[in-house]
Amino acid sequence: MSEVAKWVCEYCTYENYQSALKCTMCRGSKPLLNEDIFRLREESPTNGEDIFRASSGVGTSPGCGPSPRDVRGQRDLWHCEVCAHMNWARAVECAECRNARPVTPADLAEQLRPLRIESAEAATPAKWTCPTCTYDNWPRASRCVMCGTAARVSPSEGAGSIIIEDNMATVKRSNVRRSDEPVSPNNPVRYRQRAVDRSWLAACLGVVQGEHSPVEAFLSSGGDPTRQLTASEVSLLNRPSAFDTGHTLVHLAIRFHREDLLATLLSRIEGGGSGVKRVPSYVAPDLAADIRRHAASTLRQRKGTMPCPYLNEMPTFTLPADIEELPSSVQEQLLEELLDRDAQRQLEDEPPVINWSLELTVHLGSRLHALWNRSAGDCLLDSLMQTTWGVFDRDNLLRKALSDTLNNCGHLFYPRWREYESCQARLLQFSLEETQWQQDWAGLMSLATQPGASLEQLHVFALAHILRRPIIVYGVKYVKSFRGEDLGYARFEGVYLPLLWDPGFCTKAPV
């Protein structure tokens, strides 16, 4: 094939065949200037010629006047104001100097023609324009068909003063029936879209997808963070695995582990706690991730009759002593970010659960503080990780170890659990059948495998064996929801000992 039948790549100068859309060597795109894009026009140049430079050849034939074809070709050209070059009518810029084509009234009219812009007098007088979305509705429509805005009809106007053509009667009746229907959850999805708060649905999707901007836009516009999803909104979202009827943004944040969004939502709820906290694991996420990875590397599993996972290291998290040297205002701000003031107040109220000894608190200057952590069912695991490593259990390290412990050592924990529950049942003068025992045990096993699920006393007892040290739980009296409401009694307080391990394998330093 001759060289004329090939095109030269403008990046690597490789000569490619005409059928190639990209360069064979560097994959660069084929230039479009060599394409015969006006080959359907009569005055177009031949293949391989510059269509813009070919315009200079349009003129009179030798020895004769301009033919009608040449005159028509000249009318199809436009004159560049910078370099005086004649360009084809479809060229948007000059082929010589690349100057933009001047805009003429004819070009402007051609560009605006697809927009169908009409004057106000040309509008159909038989319709009213919605002030919200500018949609033209039929006169008998009480609400806008598109957005549901109520019609603003002046008293002087009447339905009988407007004449509508007979061939539009069927369409008019259809629109009247559709616009006069009340918006109810039983209507189809396309009718219910008129009454949907799109910012609310966008915020729900934002929580699931981990996007902050839709949630912040909903809250800044005055949205209620405790608003619940309705059945119609769940059907519109069309994700049954993610959304359920009655769920709020807080439920979604807890379900999909959006801790940062959860803190933002709780700060907007009245009585929902202290709000956003700048804890060390949030301020330094990379360092916190390294600590969690190191903690995971210390997890071991012993062979023998008790194959229970355990942590090889036994650290204890304490606040630096240099905090006492900071100004009082700085100390207060620092503790405000680290501590849970509501839980601290409940634990120190009469009768106090912590810091009740004046000898320890006043003379020795030693106090116990309630650290702030995530809510829901992860609070117990977060408390253990904070006490030992100073980070949250965001990777579910302890929950996975807890699930493996109950699965591998269930034959050791089940008799202990059943003995304790039987004692409690006898005190309340009732007994359980074997099927009920099996169902309760299966429920406890299932809770250990579900991230975010609440835990029971059995799980704390198993966690004491994972940490290989006693666990002392100073619990509040009531378990509260994210709204600050009392949900029930907290039964976690107590001392949990790793009795199934050999005493020499454990440490006496409690958590």
Care to give the gist of this entry?
By secondary structure, this protein is mostly helical. The protein has helices at residues 68-75, 105-112, 169-180, 189-192, 198-209, 212-220, 231-237, 249-255, 259-267, 280-283, 285-297, 328-338, 341-348, 358-363, 379-388, 397-408, 410-427, 434-449, 457-467, and strands spanning 6-8, 15-17, 77-79, 86-88, 128-129, 136-137, 299-301, 309-311, 471-473, 478-480, 486-489, 494-496. It is an enzyme of class 3 (hydrolase).
Q: What is this structure's SSE topology?
A:
Layout: E1 6-8, E2 15-17, H1 68-75, E3 77-79, E4 86-88, H2 105-112, E5 128-129, E6 136-137, H3 169-180, H4 189-192, H5 198-209, H6 212-220, H7 231-237, H8 249-255, H9 259-267, H10 280-283, H11 285-297, E7 299-301, E8 309-311, H12 328-338, H13 341-348, H14 358-363, H15 379-388, H16 397-408, H17 410-427, H18 434-449, H19 457-467, E9 471-473, E10 478-480, E11 486-489, E12 494-496
Antiparallel strand pairs: 1-2, 3-4, 5-6, 7-8, 9-12, 10-11
Helix pairs in contact: 5-6, 8-9, 16-18, 16-19
Protein name: ubiquitinyl hydrolase 1
Domain OTU: 368-498
Pfam families: AnkUBD, OTU, Zn_ribbon_RanBP
Keywords summarizing the entry:
ubiquitinyl hydrolase 1; OTU_Deubiquitinase; Cathepsin B, Chain A; 511 residues; zinc; elongated; protease; mainly alpha; Serine Threonine Protein Phosphatase 5, Tetratricopeptide repeat; two-stranded antiparallel ribbon; 36% helix; two-stranded antiparallel sheet
In CATH's first tier, which class of the domain at 321-496 applies? Alpha Beta
Distance between the termini: 84 Å
- SS summary, helix count: 19
Shape, principal axes of CA atoms: elongated
Per DSSP, what share of the residues sits in E-state strands of 2 or more residues?
5-15%
Helix content: 25-40%
CATH-derived architecture of the domain at 321-496: Alpha-Beta Complex
By secondary-structure content and strand pairing, the structural class works out as mainly alpha
Q: Please give the largest β-sheet.
A: 2 strands, antiparallel
Mean pLDDT: 76
Low-confidence segments, ≥5 residues, pLDDT <50? 34-73, 117-124, 155-196, 270-274
